[in-house]
Amino acid sequence: MDRETRVYAENHFRGLKGRPPGGACPPPGCVDFIENPDSFSYADFFKGYLLPNMPCVFSSSFTAGWGSRRHWVTSSGKPNFEHLLRKYGDVVVPVANCGVQEYNSNPKEHMPLRDYISYWQEYIQGGYFSPRGCLYLKDWHLCRDSSAEDVFTLPVYFSSDWLNEYWDSLDVDDYRFVYMGPTGTWSPFHADIFRSFSWSVNICGRKKWFFFPPGQEEALRDCHGGLPYDVTSPALLDRRLYPTREHCSPPLEVTQEAGEMVFVPSGWHHQVHNLEDTISINHNWVNGCNLANMWHFLQQELCAVQQEVSEWRDTMPDWHHHCQVIMRACSGINFEEFYRFLKIIAERRLLLLAKGMGPDEVEGEGGEGTMLGPQQAAFDIGRIAEVLASVVAHPDFQKVDTSTFSPQPEELLRQLEEVVVTTTTL
């Protein structure tokens, strides 16, 4: 990040006055297509799409050098089952049944990849039908389970990735996934975890995306307040069941071709269908641009938990603590974990500034900082300081036992605010 981009970003957030960034809906069918890597910089992406929180599609030129595009795909553009079996056949992968609705998702089972590929080949031979149903390999943590060397190269546009930086530091999880499945497999209507950004590259095959900008999903709620499972279902035309559907704008539709990369903004609900036998690599990620969205989402999650168990508030000892435990079980994170997340990223940015990294240096994926130089570090610290101030002031965070935290949240906030002042001339 250069200084001009940093100043532009800080002015952008200053104008929001603490409100979470959103995203206005462009004209139907209008999603920018980025053709040439040589003429599209990190600053272009940051200003044009990250800050305004708008989707875009990158051409296949951006992923032309990826090993997966050479080795995972046959000369005819189909999945290379032989290579995948040789390389990963014994790896156990999660598989969802697209034909069975379980709440607003699909039930999953686990099986060796070789068993899934055997199913997939039989499914194709059976005219894309199987008595076992329509099975979709989803959320395979390839980077966690196996070496991802020569599979993909993290695009510079997505290199400020706090979510994976944090979980890599704990060495317990990540948010890097492989999806693969036959024609007809799909992902139901949803917004990404923690209101993260995501990016998705088709290694082979084609996908159809339906996008709804933040807030539009409210018009899609049914008469009971629930969001739809499938936004293409004729049931949505029933005004008794979906009384506000007519107030929702048509979805933004994108057809993603092989090699192309889709950027999914924070808080945009979407639904995705595989139009062909498809393999994709996908990452969820959070950084300073959508950190406030993540914090807003976590507050909503806690409120939902508190409402569910409100009847036990006066009789349950440590009711607030139990709400945090339930929240972590349901959402994967609670206020205590969120503070640890902010702390780890903040300490890494403070260390990088203290080392005085040169303005043109870029650290690679998984390295200390995983970011774009001191201007990015200074920007990150400013965003963390703003959100941490809101966390510290939150009445439910004040009920969290922070006695073992080091540093104490107020002390970390003081450090960050001091650095914000000293880096204004950086």
Automatic annotation (TrEMBL):
Gene Ontology terms for molecular function: 2-oxoglutarate-dependent dioxygenase activity; catalytic activity, acting on a protein; metal ion binding; sequence-specific DNA binding
One of the Pfam families matching this protein, by short name: Cupin_8
Catalytic activity: L-lysyl-[protein] + 2-oxoglutarate + O2 = 4-hydroxy-L-lysyl-[protein] + succinate + CO2
Protein's UniProt keywords contain Disulfide bond: no
Recorded GO CC terms: cytoplasm; nucleus
Cofactor(s), names only, from the UniProt record: Fe(2+)
Single Gene Ontology BP annotation: positive regulation of translational termination
Record keywords: Iron, Metal-binding, Oxidoreductase
Domain JmjC: 143-302
InterPro entries: Cupin_8 (IPR041667), JmjC_dom (IPR003347), JMJD6_ArgDemeth/LysHydrox (IPR050910)
Protein family according to the UniProt entry: Belongs to the JMJD6 family.
Oligomeric and partner information: Interacts with ETF1. Interacts with the ETF1-GSPT1 complex.
Protein name (record): 2-oxoglutarate and iron-dependent oxygenase JMJD4
Organism: Panthera leo
Gene responsible for this protein: JMJD4
